[in-house]
C-alpha cells in the first residue's frame, strides 16, 4: 500500500478516536521535533511537523495512534500490522 494511502487511513483512524491531527511548520517556530500527542483544552491532538516526508508522517502518526485502543474499530490489515509493530516496539522498550 502506498504511503499516502496509509497516511490517509491513519488520519481517518485519528478522527474516529476523536483526535484532531494538525500539520504545523514546527521549524518556523524553532521546534526540532517531528511532533506528537498533546491535549489542548481537554481535546487530544497530534501535532505533525508539516515539513516531514510522507513516510515520516506515517511513522509519527502510527507511533502516537498505537497508544490507543483500536480493537473496536475496523482497520485495514496493513494498518493493524503497522500499529501492532509500534506497540511491540513500545513494549520492548519498557
The first-level CATH class name: Alpha Beta
Count of folded domains: 1
Report mean pLDDT, rounded to a whole number: 90
Work out the strand percent: 15-25%
- The assigned structural class equals alpha+beta
What's the architecture in CATH terms? 2-Layer Sandwich
- SSE succession: HEEEHH
Provide the spatial order of strands within the biggest beta sheet: 1-3-2
Shape: globular
Task: Give a written overview of the molecule.
The chain has 94 residues and is of the alpha+beta class. The chain has a single domain (3-86), classed as Zincin-like (2-Layer Sandwich). The chain is built from three helices and three strands. It has helices spanning 3-16, 54-65, 77-92; strands at 20-24, 35-40, 43-49. Strands 1-3-2 form a three-stranded mixed sheet. Helix 1 packs parallel to helix 2 (54-65). It is globular. The mean pLDDT is 90.
Topology readout:
Blueprint: H1 3-16, E1 20-24, E2 35-40, E3 43-49, H2 54-65, H3 77-92
Parallel strand pairs: 1-3
Antiparallel strand pairs: 2-3
Helix pairs in contact: 1-2
In a few lines, what is going on in this structure?
This protein has helices spanning 3-16, 54-65, 77-92, and strands at 20-24, 35-40, 43-49. By secondary structure, the protein is an alpha+beta fold. The longest helix has 16 residues, at 77-92.
Offer a few descriptive terms.
single chain, globular, 94 residues, Zincin-like, three-stranded mixed β-sheet, alpha+beta, 3 strands
